[in-house]
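Whiteboard transcription, Tuesday session. T.W. wrote the structure tokens on the left side:
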């Protein structure tokens, strides 16, 4: 059986803690450019239809009732629920436009509503959005797909959860971040244990197949002791998955983060101590490390997919559906169709204008060349499975791995000396000490990284 353990080596982490991508795609979103537009996207959809296969749909619902100061997502903060109405009307038009371009026999195996706060919408709006989607795309009706939604427990109750299950959702992710009152006040997200756990329990009662809790370490006023208390409370209710993110404090880039007091930020040593505590507590509780901030119960679909060798990573994180082309819908959404990545425009007025003109609201994109596809395969295999067979890559891409990646293999030698990985003539095996630093290992294979590294957050 695959070893899904991690080893926390403080010296290694301190030495390797530098900025780098999260590799939800390769090339990363920084390589998307404005020379790729509506017509180029249509061409890639045609190629995708020729290849066939299932689809994944991502919907961006950008609205939030209040702003969380740590947030770096693309969102629109408003208490006026009517602001969602024109956006939904345009989103439905985009669904129709894109749906008409994809073959109707391509089944949607994966669907995700993110944000923002998708439950900002009321039931009638959510029902209408799902109905329009079903009208233009081939949604499953047997509950075998992976249909997930991000919810804010402050915007959700038992009835909402019942309605979401009725609409076809079977996986749910609850935003929390931290239960400590002082931390919540510092980041402007006041959320009670009762709100959170009642939503989690309702999801179980309604038959959601997977429950995830989002936490963030490195927020203002956090300590090892306070975060341990939050973690203990959540472990008591045993969610299926944890997503525990490293907070990247970049106030120069994200305006809302300027409302956080820099003096309240935990030191790097405290952040590392919190991370070490989290790894120990979750491992002791029986969770396995999937990679890149994610832990899951051993029988969870992600953990099983990793052991069986078919885990995948896309713009929503880890996935069990590597065979799906990803269609992005709504402002700022990013898709992957065929050999291209595509991002929609970011502003509501521009989105409305393009939709009104009958154009796909594409802002930018990038077409992958053969080298991109090769490096993507290598990085995806490493970040999902911590193991890479040279022979498998050579067979798929018709190369000699040691010749093609001679410089990269040389760059990995110090990592082998440090105990992060094991290099052999057959492949690369990431060791327990290297799993928390998997981004560093993947960065060796990233040809675009040198000139872009300052634009990424630190790996730990």
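and on the right, the sequence the group agreed on:
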């Amino acid at each position: 059986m695959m070893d899904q353990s991690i080893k926390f080596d403080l010296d290694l982490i301190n030495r390797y803690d530098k900025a780098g991508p999260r590799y939800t795609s390769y090339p990363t979103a920084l390589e998307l450019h404005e020379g790729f537009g509506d017509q180029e996207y249509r061409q890639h959809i045609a190629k995708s239809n020729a290849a066939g296969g299932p689809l994944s749909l991502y919907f961006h619902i950008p609205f939030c009732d209040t702003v969380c100061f740590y947030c770096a997502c693309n969102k629109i903060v408003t208490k006026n629920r009517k602001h969602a109405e024109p956006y939904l009307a345009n989103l439905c038009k985009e669904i129709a436009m894109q749906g008409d371009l994809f073959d109707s026999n391509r089944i949607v195996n994966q669907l995700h509503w993110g944000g923002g706060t998708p439950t900002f919408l009321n039931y009638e709006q959510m029902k209408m959005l799902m109905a329009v989607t079903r009208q233009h795309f081939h949604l499953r009706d047997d509950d075998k797909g992976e249909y997930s939604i991000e919810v804010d427990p402050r915007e959700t109750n038992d009835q909402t959860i019942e309605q979401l299950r009725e609409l076809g959702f079977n996986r749910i992710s609850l935003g929390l971040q931290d239960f400590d009152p002082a931390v919540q006040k510092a980041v402007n997200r006041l959320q009670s244990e009762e709100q959170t756990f009642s939503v989690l329990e309702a999801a179980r009662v309604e038959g959601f197949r997977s429950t995830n809790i989002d936490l963030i370490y490195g927020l203002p006023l956090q300590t090892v002791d306070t975060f341990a208390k939050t973690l203990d409370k959540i472990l008591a209710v045993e969610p299926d998955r944890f997503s525990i993110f490293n907070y990247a404090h970049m106030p120069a880039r994200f305006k809302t983060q300027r409302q956080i007091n820099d003096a309240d930020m935990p030191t790097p040593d405290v952040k590392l101590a919190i991370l070490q505590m989290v790894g120990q507590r979750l491992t002791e509780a029986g969770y396995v490390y999937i990679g890149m901030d994610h832990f899951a119960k051993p029988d969870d679909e992600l953990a099983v997919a990793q052991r069986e060798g078919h885990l995948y990573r896309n713009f929503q994180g880890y996935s069990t559906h590597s065979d799906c082309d990803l269609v992005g819908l709504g402002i700022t959404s990013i898709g992957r169709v065929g050999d291209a990545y595509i991002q929609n425009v970011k502003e509501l007025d521009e989105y409305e204008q393009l939709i009104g003109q009958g154009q796909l609201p594409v802002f930018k994109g990038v077409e992958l060349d053969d080298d991109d596809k090769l490096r993507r395969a290598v990085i995806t295999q490493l970040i999902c499975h911590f193991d890479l067979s040279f022979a498998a890559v050579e067979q798929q891409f018709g190369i000699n791995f040691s010749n093609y990646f001679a410089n990269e293999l040389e760059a990995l030698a110090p990592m082998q000396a440090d105990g992060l990985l094991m290099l052999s003539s057959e492949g690369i095996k990431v060791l327990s000490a290297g799993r928390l630093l998997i981004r560093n290992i993947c960065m060796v294979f990233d040809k675009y990284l040198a000139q872009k590294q300052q634009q990424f957050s630190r790996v730990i």
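Someone added at the bottom: The chain has a mean pLDDT of 93.
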